[in-house]
Amino acid sequence: MNKINNLWMWGGIGLVLMGSLYLFQGILLPFFTGLLVAYAMSPAVRSLEKWGISRTFAALFIIILFFLSIVLLLVIALPFLQTELFYLASRIPQYGARLMLFLQPFLEKISQYIQSDDSERLKALASTHLGDFVTWGIRLVAGILTKSLALANILSLIVITPVVAFYCLRDWEKLITTLDRWLPRPYEPTLRYLFSEMNATISGFAKGQSLVCLTVGFYYCLTLTLADLDFSLIVGVIIGITAFIPYVGALLGFMLSLGIALSQFPDWGSIGVIVAIFLVGQTLEGYFFIPYFVGDRIKLHPVWIIFALFGGGVLYGFLGILFALPVAAAIGVLMRHGIQIYLKSPYYLGNKVLSSRKKVS
Fold first, then answer.
1. Domain limits of the chain?
2. Do 241 and 218 touch, CB atoms closer than 8 A?
3. pTM, rounded to two decimals
4. Are 259 and 269 in contact (CB under 8 A)?
């Protein structure tokens, strides 16, 4: 009876917590971002403490260095990226016209096998669904922006996040000690094990996948530039940023690069070089970069990662996307622990456990 009461109690606490997060999601972004920065920077502060530096000064130094690096990166990169994006937007109609001219012979051959009425229906159907897709994409982006920045706008994110990050980082050890005291004593060893597994999984994924994103982005920037593809740096940056989503970043970059290549290059050899670059890139990413930088530490299936990102975005907007992978990693640890308990329980073993217990008694 006590176990059932405990389950109801923890279930109720979980529902209240989830409801509170959903209710206050509009103001949580700067606070949760600051907490995430404190979690990531805690090892650096711990290293400075070993050199005899006070934790307050170490936390202040790390936070200032971290946010100054971001500001410097934005100041250097944003003007260039903005210029390139505006230039790309101005060239899109020209690319579209050249692409249609390139595909015209294939479309004429296909039209010979399609009746005129069917062709018109296909065009109308394609335009309808294309409009629906564009509308859905705009609504999704707008929903993410409005959900995540309803009350916590960009200004509050810039101002509040460093303050929250500093205080959380300064008091990180106290927070961990306090949470440790709150653990139920009968379940303390199990909870400590689960938290350590979650920490190892999340940190392993964050460090490994960050290196994968940097390496993949640098590879595509370099190779596409050597292949003389227009906007190669923009394409490489997009692939590097989206590389944490399995297959999505490479697929998006390949479609974008192929579209630019078809409208830019008059010969098939140059287009074949672009295709070869992505084939080699996917081989390097799948068989070298991910196994070397990430390995088997994260234990997250690619489908689970994609589902977590989309689910987090739908429920909590940008905040959900930001915390989707850490939460998915934590849930994965809990699910694996629950499955281990289930495989040792009478619900799975059935009569074998009952019969063995009767023999022992």
1. 24-108+127-182, 197-295, 299-361
2. no
3. 0.64
4. no
